[in-house]
Model the fold of this input.
Amino acid sequence: MEEKKIPYKIYLEEEEMPKEWYNVRADMKNKPAPLLNPETKQPMTAEELGAIFCDELVKQEMDDTTAYIPIPEEIRNFYKMYRPSPLVRAYCLEEKLQTPAKIYYKFEGNNTSGSHKLNSAIAQAYYAKQQGLKGVTTETGAGQWGTALSMACAYLDLDCKVYMVKVSYEQKPFRKEVMRTYGANVTPSPSTTTEIGKKILERHPGTTGSLGCAISEAVEVASNTPGYRYVLGSVMNQVLLHQSVIGLETKAALDKYGIEPDIIIGCAGGGSNLGGLISPFMGEKLRGEKNYRFIAVEPESCPSFTRGKYAYDFCDTGMVCPLQKMYTLGSNFIPSASHAGGLRYHGMSSTLSQLYADGLMEATTVSQTQVFEAAQMFAKVEGILPAPESSHAIRVAIDEAMKCKETGEEKTIVFGLTGTGYFDMVAYGKYNDGVMSDYVPTDEELEKSFALLPDVE
Ligand SMILES: *Cc1c(COP(=O)(O)O)cnc(C)c1O
Done:
């Protein structure tokens, strides 16, 4: 069959956009382990979860049997403002690498939040509004999730309280201003506005904060403020579900041209973009219809999959969130201060964790200097200034393409380009000045953190 000329960008028509999210858990033989109550260590009931999360999102969180869940029309209309996102054939990168591999990337940076996080933010805000709530609270690290949620809340006229990790609040003042422009209330964490924040500040005066700590503060405020619930930008099953829109669009675009990927690559922080991208393809693999290689890429300074333990752990420093079984470095683990490339969460999606434990996907680590080298090469040839997080996937896509060059194989590689890096210029500056260093945690450091894992079987 004559090959159709593949355009630089494969778009979908509005009517080709997904009308349902795909829930990969429905096709998993081994389901992800249930969330546990941090006090009783028993599985969380819907009622208990409902004190923290919106009711409809609790249902989605616990549903591991329904394969397709309709996307409400209002969310689909919001998606239409910035989706479908393009699937780009990286002709220029292929040319630069002189590789026989065919490289595609799904670009999620074409919205003001600059990342894929808006896909779940609008869904979570929508269900909060449906429930008649007044507002939501959340944490943000680098700021992409806080920005996405602020945008979604502005659209639906909901209050939005964001606890932003203090070091980012100070290093990324423009991120904070974007959120405030969308009407969000932004507090640097740890703060004195919560009991847990005060406790952490007492114990660690001068701390620059962590995601785990910001989560605890946001959860505390949501539980103590009538009409508020907590929402989370990654890790949870519901977030992977919403992010499946990435994979469904990717698959629809590839199918249009009869393209079959061999390798699908994504960066992994909490696992939401990777989970979303691979879900429909993983579904085919789980049902025995197709075979693909899936690769999760994580920083060597925060290697949850590759060096973590598969165990129940806390999602937050304050130990108020439900326990989740996942690959984890321990909720006390904080990546080295020299780490600038994002993806610094200690744990991982429980869905992806189960798939990894079952040998259905691979994981690898890269150093941050390798990541920024790939980022710069990509920016020069493909034009887009990538987020450091996304550049983890770029690095491994390039490495796989170079392997094809050696063997002469014409593999098709798809990777997730999750966002843009305009707010990461301090990190780029370090790279450009040649002062970026790599850090690998020692086994001793990790053992210390593992020793504090909760005692649950
Ligand atoms: C948040 C973020 C990530 C990592 O989060 P996941 O939940 O692992 O997808 C990756 N890239 C960008 C641009 C992000 O904002």
Q: What stands out?
A: The longest helix spans residues 237-256. The longest strand covers residues 159-165.
